[in-house]
What we know:
With 263 residues, the chain is mainly beta. It has helices at residues 7-23, 64-67, 132-140, and strands at 35-53, 56-62, 71-82, 88-104, 111-127, 148-165, 170-191, 194-203, 212-225, 228-240, 247-262. A 10-stranded antiparallel barrel has the order 1-3-4-5-6-7-8-9-10-11.
Amino acid sequence: MKHSISTYRCLIVAAALCAVSLVAPAYAADGAKTQWEITPYAWTAGLSGDVAVRGVTLPVDVDFSDVSDKVDSAFAIHATGRKPDSNWGTSVDFLYLKLGGERDFPLPGVTVTVEMKQLMVELAALYSPKTDLELQEAWEAGEKAIPYSLIVGARYIAMDNSISLSSGPSGSANEGWVEPMIGVVTRLPVSGKLSVALRGDIGGFGVAQSQFTSNVLVDFRYQFSKTKWMNLGYRSLSVDTLDNGEGGDITMAGAIFGITSQF
């Protein structure tokens, strides 16, 4: 099923999923209060891959310095919620990117204009074999315990790609779908106030338009106050929807910067 992307729709989807995420952990366990970590972040990602509209395939290979000049709007935020005495938690991620630009086509005097919009909203459950309280007790007892969580959830992805030639055909491809995803995330202490979070997940599996989606994150976190961390890391996200001359096979990869607040 195909969809166009609008800011209004983005806000509706984000609000709906965030509302679900706020309710879900409230029933995970009795006792301790749910602790939330909210991280607005910037992603200095470059693009590589192919975009196809009506049989016209255009290779995309630009670094962030080129992409940044073409970004019309971008917004990204991540949130997790968990009770210290619960094995379950919730994860929400929202990403919206709109960019466009021109480049020469492999024909004399022909310029191609490309506009890309991407919306991704993720809602997932986190399951940890040990609760935060159990991990703390193990560490205090001198035991070695690695904190990790299994991720099971769904992503809503919408892509709106348009290609127009200064002399020739033009067209657009709009698609949106919900896909399953599974993965794992861990956070390891490095030294003092420094820790590193590692996450990997995959999705799609041909269930909807997406043939395959992969997401990898390495995030160093420095705690500069009791409830705030500075984030610096690297993220790579690949989405493959190419099918019969429509869609895209795009990888976004680059450094991320953010500030995490806990409450």
